[in-house]
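Can you make up a protein sequence with its backbone structure tokens?

===
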Amino acid sequence: MDTKAQASFQEKALELLTADAEKIAQLIRVQMDNLTMPSCPLYEEVLDTQMFGLSREIEFAARLGLIERDQGKKILDSLEKELSLLHDAYTDK
């Protein structure tokens, strides 16, 4: 595969992973707006499933060489920070 095609695949992989992360972030923001999170087992299960799925997508892309592991870690770290803010907002409520 030529380097131009590889760069295109890498760009697309990062774009898709970022879009998936944004969907999870939106879910977190909706919960922050409503502050109904930790007491809702369904929400926790959905969020855990989404986060796990994203982590597997990132791992797969990293194994293929489409993204750097550090890029994937940054995406997950960003979501974890939002989750922490949500938890803090809920417990301060």
Observations:
- The two ends are 54 Å apart (CA to CA).
